[in-house]
Amino acid sequence: MLVVENVDVNYGAIRALVDVSLEVHEGEIVALIGANGAGKSTTLRSISGLVKPNKGRILFEGSELQKCPPHKVVEMGISQVPEGRRVFPLMTVLENLEMGAFTRKDRANIKDDIDKVFAKFPRLEERKKQPAGTLSGGEQQMLAIGRALMSKPKIMLMDEPSMGLAPMLVQEIFNIVKEINQSGTTILLVEQNARMALAVANRGYVLETGQVVISGAAADLAKNEAVQKAYLGV
Predict the structure, then answer these.
(1) Which of 28, 117, 131, 226 has minimal Cβ neighbours within 10 Å of its Cβ?
(2) What is the spatial order of strands in the sheet that 78-81 belongs to?
(3) pTM higher than 0.70, yes or no?
(4) What domains are there in the chain, each with its CATH number?
(5) Tell me, what DSSP letter sits at residue 132?
(6) Taking 70 as the threshold, does the pLDDT of residue 234 lie above it?
(7) Contact at 8 Å (CB) between 81 and 41?
(8) Are strands 29-33 and 2-11 parallel, antiparallel or unpaired?
């Protein structure tokens, strides 16, 4: 479904990604774990078209993405839940959700999909007329996920969805990740909470200093001694 093939990304003299290759198959949750600065977010941003690779190819359902502008990537069926949530703070909850559907042509179905988001996140419906900037961190994360769902993605790129959330909310967010996947959306998950990420994922990749150093089934990675020592605190 999604293939990242020998991708390099440079920020000036800094090599952010070095020969990165990974695959995400339809229906999977694939986790991308690694330390801060390892290149996880850059990988997602290169798939979304926000960063242009210096080398390599990115293929989605056989079509090359690396030269596509970000809005075309969304139209093709890839949405991103950005790190730090990035909701539009002065717009209402409802307006944020409507913004998530800006590439859609089927305007008549948008209200139904907003209702589906509210069914998944009842707290958002209670606050639908509030400016998004007044929501709690957990509510903003739910809104960011709901906004990404509004483009009806085939694959969702999730960047640190549990960052800065209370432990009880972290579990709730990961339950939501599983629900979204079970509803038919493929997920590429970047997450510093490696234990939780590997618990929900089918497969995983470990990034270190911009390179994939280990990959495999999530259950195997969770048992890998090097992964345990570096990321699971074992």
Answers:
(1) 226
(2) 78-81, 155-159, 186-190, 29-33, 203-208, 211-217
(3) yes
(4) 2-87+154-232 (3.40.50.300)
(5) G
(6) no
(7) no
(8) unpaired
Q: Is the dihedral of CA 152, 156, 157, 158 positive or negative?
A: positive
- Residue that the structure tokens 């002065």 belong to: 90
**Cα distance between residue 232 and residue 223, in whole Å:** 10
Is the model more confident about 169 or about 197? 197
Token readout for 175 is 């339950």
Percentages (nearest 5) of helix, strand, coil residues in the chain: 40, 25, 30
* pLDDT for residue 54 is more than 80: yes
Virtual torsion, Cα 27, 178, 79, 160, nearest 10 deg: -130
pLDDT at site 53: 94
Tokens of 158: 């999730």
Please state, for a pLDDT cut of 70, what percent of the chain lies above it: 99
Residue for token digits 């958002």? 124
Strands laid side by side in the 55-60 sheet: 14-24, 2-11, 55-60, 63-64
